[in-house]
Amino acid sequence: MSDSYLGKEVAGQFRIVEKIGKGGMGAVYRAEQPDMNRFVAIKILHSRYLSRSDLVSRFRREARAMSQLSHPNTARVFLYGQLDDGACYFVMEHLVGQNLAQMVRAEGAMAPERAIRIMVQVCGALEEAHQAGIVHRDLKPENVFVTTQGGIRDFPKVLDFGLAKVTERQMRPGSMVLTQQGMVFGTPEFMSPEQAHGKTLDARSDIYSLGVILYELLTGKLPFDAKQPLEYIQLHVNATPIPLPERHPEASFPRGLEEVVMKVLAKDPEERYASAAEFAFALEAVLQPRKSREALGPVSLPTPIPTGPMVSSFEPAAPVRLLGAPLRSKASWLVFGVGVVLAVAGVIALWASFGPGS
After folding, report:
1. Is residue 201 included in any domain, yes or no?
2. CATH value at residue 86
3. Catalytic annotation, pick one of 35, 84, 85, 138
4. CATH number of the domain that 215 lies in?
5. Residue 235 has pLDDT above 70, yes or no
6. Which residues fall within 8 angstroms of residue 152, CB to CB, at 6 or more apart?
7. Low-confidence winner among 37-41, 186-190, 339-343 (lowest mean pLDDT)
8. Phi, psi (5° rounding) for residue 237?
9. Which band of pLDDT confidence, cut at 50, 70 and 90, is reported for residue 276?
10. Which of 51, 89, 145, 270 shows its CA 20 to 30 Å from the CA of 21?
């Protein structure tokens, strides 16, 4: 089936060249911008939804929210507008790489250090959004895209702020849409307990979802075993997550990591970290002891002291960095010992000079 948007000019400066994604509400296209010698991505809301003021409003809200965020780990939005057929669109940066869901499917569980580094960056993006009063409400691995930027690998970009998903078949397998007054949407596998209850959400709901994402990165699995969307919702509300070592027995997790993960997965928002920045700080603290040990580097002996008549019996000193205090103590005893020897030698010399045989 042909796509009427292929080859179309947008805003007089972009030309759509291919479709790179689609969903129940619209599609995402790759477009070239010849004047800037670059490619961009254009997200288009189907024109048939123009009569749905709620969906149009959410689409605009996503564009507005992302355009106001400047954190490097948030996908940038350049332009918002409407096409000739009335369809709404916005232009954003074109990313090359994979989302976290694709990475886990292809590679399995990540090394804890790698997963933590990615999540700390994601927390940075969410902290800026939360400070601006924006709650994502649909954080999941599909909405975290990992690319290379400025030569930095594993550089995550958070996507889809405020974009509602309206059909079950367009979501993650096993997902569903909860619709009530105000159209509440969510993905059960990553939904906070308060979101499952339909309560008003704040930043701590996103933090819970980040915890589920991190759990999946660390183990390759979700924190609960379920087959149906309603089962996931019930487990998020009532069940204790399966411990990390039990979920992935082959892995070696840094000390303290499981406590951090379980804290963000607490049922009561008051028991979680209060902000994404606090969560990131806790994750960095997990790695800090290991980083401190690595910073010391391998222990090696210093260059031996040149031998000579006065120092042939001396042992090489231990590294000052590791044994500073003992080294200073040995030096003090050495000086004391030399002084005693000189004093005894002086007494002997005096005795030889003034003794009985003089």
Report:
1. yes
2. 3.30.200.20
3. 138
4. 1.10.510.10
5. yes
6. none
7. 339-343
8. -80, -35
9. very high
10. 51
| Model pLDDT for residues 77-120, shown as the tens digit of each residue | 999 999 998 899 999 999 999 999 999 999 999 999 999 999 99
Q: How far is CA 81 from the centre of its chain?
A: 32
Number of structural domains (the chain) is 2
3-state secondary structure (DSSP) of residue 45: strand
- Mean pLDDT estimate for the chain: 79
Domain boundaries, position 19: 1-94
- Cα→Cα distances 300→60, 291, 324, 327, 339, Å: 61, 19, 15, 16, 32
pLDDT exceeds 50 at position 296: no
- Do the beta carbons of residue 57 and residue 139 sit within 8 Å? no
Same domain, 6 and 107: no
154 part of the active site: no
In a shared domain, residues 118 and 68: no
Sheet containing strand 144-149, edge to edge, reads 97-99, 144-149, 152-158
Residue 134 placed within a domain: yes
User: Tell me: the pLDDT tens digits for 254-274?
Assistant: 999 999 999 999 999 999 999
> Token pair of 8, please?
């179309």
Residues 66 and 118 reside in one and the same domain = no
